[in-house]
């Protein structure tokens, strides 16, 4: 699969405008990002990252009979704190119709990477060419695993605004496998875009019994995990890999959050592989009670109803898993809807299992917070703010706890043991005031406080 990214409009045009008149953006920059993982080779995965933005979210400068603007975009792939591959480019916007300055249009693009297995962070930032303070940024955790080679496998689904057969055109950034596949990174359908197109690749179809057929099942489930749509079609095993495309008509769906599930079912071996992706349907005046969507982005109902104090409190609670870039981004937000969108996107990026109706990562994190508040609080602080609470929230429940009560010559202290963490890790907490406020005094975890003379803090002064 080979893609090239070529703009027909030279960026030089932007830099040599004849007028100093700049028309400011109507809205703040909001970059939509999606991605899909495909088979690369035996050692790597081919990652496609899709992006889009509205042209009315950037400034334009008048130039003769047109208006010219641009968005600067950076994508940085980081692994273990090290930048492995950084791409920077500028997307031009040329508008000839003055009405389009206000209404805007959507510009879509794609960037590609070959990645070895591992956990990465994709850091994306964008800024208005003529107004650097108008910007957007986000961080996406990426878990890259190789596809199996001994059984059926499916790529991630790519959700699109259109798919059609075209002649081979390597200058078309959306051309692959005889098709023009135009992604829809916002994953938003409904008004103006009722048809969801999907593209997915199947692998290893000839590794087993070559005489068998398989069934490709497409289903749509809502936020309550109720199946709304289910289609099946039989397929023959002709080649070792195959491209599957299809459509979902969202016209009959209420506004809300849905999950597209695609399953490859082997009826002979009684096995199935599943791939899925969430999408959103927006219909003014017809909104599912579970999810509310706003024009500022896709926001689940819990955030649509939260006030600023509640949002700030939740952001405080997630301090242990917030990156520095995310922290700086949230601190700069002053608009309530922007904070709602941030919190929604924050958890969405960490949902490793989008096929389910709940975000398991968020549920587990909040369960740990609740446990800390109930069992690990200090005398004057909530449990999630205590040292023991922080360790529990970040690392989970210890394998065992050694508790040492107060004695004649020693303060009460606890040793938490994590046997599978970094080959065996301990955390030592001491109640130095004998009031239930256990403070971390030593750990052999590489990222935590270390003090080999920690026992001096346990001994009582006489």
Structure description:
With 462 residues, the protein is of the alpha+beta class. It is built from eight helices and 26 strands. The protein has three domains: 1-144, Immunoglobulin-like; 147-286, Immunoglobulin-like, CATH 2.60.40.2550; 379-457, no CATH class. The protein has helices at residues 12-15, 98-103, 301-304, 308-317, 324-331, 336-349, 360-375, 387-395; strands at 22-23, 32-39, 45-54, 60-63, 66-79, 82-95, 106-115, 118-128, 131-144, 153-154, 158-165, 175-176, 179-183, 188-190, 195-203, 213-222, 227-236, 242-249, 256-266, 271-282, 291-294, 297-300, 400-404, 413-418, 425-431, 438-443. The longest helix is centred in the C-terminal third of the chain and has 16 residues, at 360-375.
Fold blueprint:
Layout: H1 12-15, E1 22-23, E2 32-39, E3 45-54, E4 60-63, E5 66-79, E6 82-95, H2 98-103, E7 106-115, E8 118-128, E9 131-144, E10 153-154, E11 158-165, E12 175-176, E13 179-183, E14 188-190, E15 195-203, E16 213-222, E17 227-236, E18 242-249, E19 256-266, E20 271-282, E21 291-294, E22 297-300, H3 301-304, H4 308-317, H5 324-331, H6 336-349, H7 360-375, H8 387-395, E23 400-404, E24 413-418, E25 425-431, E26 438-443
Parallel strand pairs: 14-20
Antiparallel strand pairs: 1-4, 2-3, 3-7, 4-5, 5-6, 5-8, 8-9, 10-15, 11-13, 11-15, 12-13, 15-18, 16-17, 16-19, 19-20, 21-22, 23-24, 24-25, 25-26
Helix pairs in contact: 4-6, 7-8
């Amino acid at each position: 699969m080979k893609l090239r990214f070529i703009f027909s409009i030279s960026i030089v045009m932007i830099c040599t405008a004849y007028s100093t008149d700049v028309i400011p953006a109507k809205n703040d920059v909001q970059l939509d990002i999606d991605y899909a993982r495909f088979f690369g080779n035996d050692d790597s995965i081919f990652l496609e990252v899709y992006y889009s933005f509205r042209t009315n979210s950037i400034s334009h400068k008048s130039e003769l009979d047109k208006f010219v603007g641009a968005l600067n975009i950076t994508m940085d792939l980081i692994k273990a704190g090290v930048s492995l591959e950084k791409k920077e480019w500028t997307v031009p916007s040329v508008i000839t119709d003055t009405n389009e300055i206000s209404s805007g249009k959507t510009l879509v693009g794609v960037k590609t990477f070959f990645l070895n297995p591992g956990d990465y962070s994709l850091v994306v930032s964008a800024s208005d060419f003529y107004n650097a303070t108008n910007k957007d940024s986000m961080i996406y955790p990426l878990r890259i695993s190789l596809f199996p080679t001994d059984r059926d496998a499916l790529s991630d689904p790519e959700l699109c605004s259109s798919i059609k057969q075209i002649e081979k055109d390597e200058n078309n950034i959306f051309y692959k496998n005889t098709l023009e596949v135009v992604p829809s990174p916002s994953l938003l359908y409904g008004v103006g875009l009722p048809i969801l197109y999907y593209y997915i690749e199947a692998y290893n179809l000839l590794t087993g019994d070559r005489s068998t057929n398989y069934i490709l099942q497409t289903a749509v489930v809502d936020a309550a995990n109720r199946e709304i749509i289910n289609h099946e079609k039989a397929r023959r095993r002709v080649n070792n890999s195959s491209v599957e495309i299809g459509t979902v008509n969202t016209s009959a769906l209420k506004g809300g959050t849905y999950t597209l599930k695609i399953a490859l079912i082997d009826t002979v071996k009684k096995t199935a592989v599943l791939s899925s992706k969430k999408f959103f349907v927006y219909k003014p005046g017809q909104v599912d009670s579970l999810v509310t969507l706003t024009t500022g982005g896709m926001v689940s109902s819990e955030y649509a109803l939260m006030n600023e104090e509640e949002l700030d409190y939740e952001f405080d609670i997630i301090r242990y898993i917030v990156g520095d870039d995310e922290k700086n981004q949230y601190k700069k937000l002053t608009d309530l809807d922007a904070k709602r969108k941030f919190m929604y996107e924050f958890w969405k990026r960490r949902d490793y299992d989008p096929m389910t109706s709940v975000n398991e990562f968020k549920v587990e994190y909040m369960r740990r917070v609740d446990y800390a508040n109930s069992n690990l609080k200090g005398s004057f602080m909530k449990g999630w703010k205590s040292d023991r609470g922080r360790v529990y929230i970040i690392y989970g429940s210890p394998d065992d706890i050694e508790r040492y009560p107060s004695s004649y010559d020693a303060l009460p202290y606890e040793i938490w043991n994590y046997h599978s963490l970094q080959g065996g890790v301990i955390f030592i907490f001491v109640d130095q005031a004998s009031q239930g406020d256990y403070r971390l005094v030593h750990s052999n975890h590489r990222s935590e406080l270390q003090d080999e003379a920690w026992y001096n803090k346990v001994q009582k002064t006489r």
